[in-house]
Design brief:
Elements: H1 12-16, H2 20-34, E1 36-41, H3 46-51, E2 54-56, H4 58-66, E3 72-76, H5 79-88, E4 93-95, H6 104-107, H7 111-120, E5 125-129, H8 134-138, E6 142-144, H9 149-154, E7 162-165, H10 168-178, E8 183-185, H11 191-194, H12 198-207, E9 212-215, H13 221-224, E10 229-230, H14 233-242, E11 245-249, H15 252-261, E12 266-269, H16 284-293, H17 302-318, H18 327-335
Helix pairs in contact: 2-16, 4-5, 5-17
Length: about 350
């Protein structure tokens, strides 16, 4: 006998009183009724990842959702990620369970602030890290991810100045990789990665001397200089499949996810304090409430959306678009680790 869909409750607190199993069942029923797809970022809690249809990094998830026939996208991440999903799927209803889940790094730069800097450097090209608002993407010439940032920057003539927003650490890493001296970085940063320090890395290496050190390029330069590999979150996922012991310098959510999927391996967080509170603002209770009440919708003016999409599409053209997964990536997909996409945080 098929059980009927559970009734809608009034408040998030009502949902929070339910068990994870009850919430998971409610989410399954509701997304089926609505033809919805749930996207869970790599940094989400494991409970959110468990009920997500796709788990990965932000741009890859938005591409996944755009490629489905779902009518509704629920993005469990932070605000700029849900905006990116709307940019690429304007015909779909895009929801986020907690509208207060913002990104401090993305908030460092606004469209107005970027327009002012552009007026001071009228000949400069603007490269926007995907960790930025729709308004900022609309003011940019091209977007980039941490995985393709070097290729994007190298596609711009060497004698043309570049305004890079919003992450100063990623900008410095690009400068080091390309040797360009005409990049103007915005003074923003991800506090989770920027707060990681050498002392933490040294302690981790003392306890795990044979582990490979893998660090995200949003970290400070002195940490990147000590890394065996500097790579994006999708790169970390691929490395987890290939190595038995890694010290991983990024948000704890990804480390916890990889340890869960490879219990026989040893993945050590470079910093146990590397936790993004904004990412953790989403819960299964809020997700279930969001689906039942169709809240909170993410929208933007069409003129902003269209211009932001142009910046994203220029990036995809340079990086070869959304590449088909390799057989190994397909295997990871089947195992529950979805590593498709461009590798943005």
């Amino acid at each position: 006998m098929i059980r009927p869909a559970p009734p809608t409750l009034k408040t998030v607190r009502d949902y929070a009183a339910l068990s994870h199993e009850d919430l998971a069942e409610r989410i399954w029923w509701r997304k089926k009724d609505l033809n919805a797809v749930i996207l869970g970022h790599n940094y989400q809690d494991l409970e959110i990842q468990a009920v997500s249809d796709f788990v990965g990094d932000s741009l890859a998830l938005s591409q996944e959702a755009a490629d489905t026939e779902a009518d509704i996208i629920v993005f469990c991440g932070v605000h700029f990620m849900a905006e990116t999903a709307k940019i690429l799927s304007p015909q779909k209803l895009v929801l986020m369970p907690d509208p207060g889940a913002g990104c401090p790094m993305a908030d460092f730069v606004t469209g107005e602030g970027l327009r002012k800097l552009k007026s001071q450097h009228p000949d400069a090209a603007v490269v926007a890290y995907v960790n930025s608002s729709a308004d900022v993407k609309a003011e940019s010439d091209i977007c980039c991810t941490s995985a393709n940032a070097v290729a994007v920057v190298e596609s711009i003539p060497a004698d043309r100045p570049i305004i890079f927003v919003p992450d100063r650490n990623l900008a410095q890493w690009i400068i080091d990789q390309t040797g360009r001296d005409n990049i103007i970085p915005w003074e923003g940063y991800c506090h989770v990665h920027d707060d990681m320090v050498l002392d933490e890395l040294e302690f981790a290496k003392e306890d795990h001397p044979n582990a490979l050190v893998v660090i995200h390029p949003e970290a400070r330069q002195e940490l990147l200089d000590q890394a065996d590999v500097v790579t994006s979150t999708s790169g970390m996922v691929r490395m987890a499949a290939e190595h038995d012991e890694l010290i991983i310098g990024t948000e704890r959510g990804l480390v916890d996810k990889l340890q869960k999927d490879y219990p026989e391996k040893n993945f050590i967080p470079l910093s146990k304090a590397a936790i993004c509170g904004n990412m953790k603002a989403n819960t299964t209770a809020k997700l279930s409430w969001s689906l039942d009440h169709l809240r909170f919708e993410v929208s933007m003016p069409e003129e902003i959306r269209a211009r932001a999409e142009t910046s994203l599409q220029r990036m995809l053209e340079i990086s070869g678009g959304w590449q088909a997964p390799t057989p190994e990536q397909e295997r990871l997909e089947m195992a529950g680790i979805r590593s498709k996409g461009c590798g943005c945080a």
